[in-house]
Specification:
The protein folds into 2 domains: 3-154, Phosphorylase Kinase, domain 1, CATH 3.30.200; 156-263, Transferase(Phosphotransferase) domain 1 (Transferase(Phosphotransferase), domain 1), CATH 1.10.510.10. The protein is built from 9 helices and 11 strands. It has helices at 3-18, 23-32, 35-46, 92-95, 108-128, 167-183, 220-237, 245-253, 259-263, and strands at residues 52-59, 63-69, 75-81, 136-140, 143-147, 150-151, 154-155, 187-188, 197-200, 203-206, 213-214. A 5-stranded antiparallel beta sheet has the order 1-2-3-5-4, sandwiched between helices. A two-stranded antiparallel sheet has the order 6-7. A two-stranded antiparallel ribbon has the order 8-11. α1 packs across α3 (35-46) and α7 crosses α8. The longest helix has 21 residues, at 108-128.
Length: 266
């Protein structure tokens, strides 16, 4: 790796830092760009996956998301998972029990790479059955490149930050997506709320799906009931006439929730 290539990636990273004023956010941004991750970004540029990486779209406990461009000048979202995060220790439950990853290797790096791969696979599964979510492009180690949800470098807002014009219609659309996930993808989001849904032209886009599990996961039913409670809580606050949690669960699964499912805290 030449000094010129290293300087180039440093300049791109600095572009995002310039836009951030809060010291805590700065610290969060810098934490994802260890040497290995920076070299991986350079490799993606050299191999034609990326042409540029720009500003930080969002920061989180597990990962940061950056705006970037592909070689055809298409806008992209670049999700970089932290290689040092205590949050991952809490997430083993979403991987353990998933038959797709039963042979994953132990260790922090191996788990984070598995976590990134899990989001990639879940996004592919969701897009295949028509549940709107970012289209995944490639995942390498702790970096996931996917479709940018937004236009002209302006990211679509989270549902929690949006002014919903027709909440009843949106509620119905989200319930339809939850049902499609269950019936067609055999998948549960497992962390669905107004914090993990983007709004693109008044349409919902499901995001942050690393934790999504297959129906045969031992806690899948409890995760679904938790998703239902979150969605009902939010839309109830907007004045929408919601379906009771138990009724909605039965509508999606064709069976009533057991008392254990309703009270289990995970």
């Amino acid at each position: 790796m030449s000094d010129k290539e290293i300087a180039s990636i440093d300049q791109r990273i600095d572009k995002s830092r310039i836009r951030e004023k809060d010291s805590n956010t700065l610290k969060s941004i810098e934490s994802v760009f260890d040497f290995q991750t920076s070299m991986l970004i350079v490799k993606m540029m050299n191999t034609g996956i990326l042409s540029d990486i720009g500003f930080c779209i969002s920061t989180g406990k597990e990962a940061n998301v950056y705006h970037g461009y592909g070689v055809k000048k298409e806008e992209l979202a670049i999700k970089i998972y932290r290689t040092a995060s205590a949050e991952f220790k809490k997430n083993w439950i979403y991987v353990k029990g998933d038959p797709r990853f039963k042979n994953y290797k132990k260790g922090t790096y191996a788990f984070i790479y598995t976590w990134a791969k899990k989001e990639f696979k879940n996004l592919k599964r969701m897009n295949k059955i028509g549940v709107r979510s970012p289209i995944p492009i490639v995942v390498q180690k702790n970096v996931l490149v996917m479709e940018f949800i937004g236009k002209s470098e302006k990211a679509a807002p989270l549902l929690k930050d949006s002014k919903v014009k027709k909440p009843h219609k949106l509620y119905a659309k989200i319930l339809d997506y939850m049902t499609k996930l269950y019936e067609d993808a055999k998948l549960i989001h497992a962390d669905l709320s107004e914090y993990n849904i983007l709004m693109l032209k008044q349409d919902p886009v499901f995001i942050d799906v690393s934790q999504a599990v297959l129906l045969d996961h031992p806690y899948a039913s409890a995760f679904l009931f938790r998703d239902i409670k979150n969605i009902n809580r939010y839309f109830s606050s907007l004045g929408v006439e919601i379906l009771p949690n138990e009724e909605l669960y039965e509508q999606i699964t064709d069976s009533p929730p057991s008392p254990k499912i309703q009270t289990l805290e995970i």
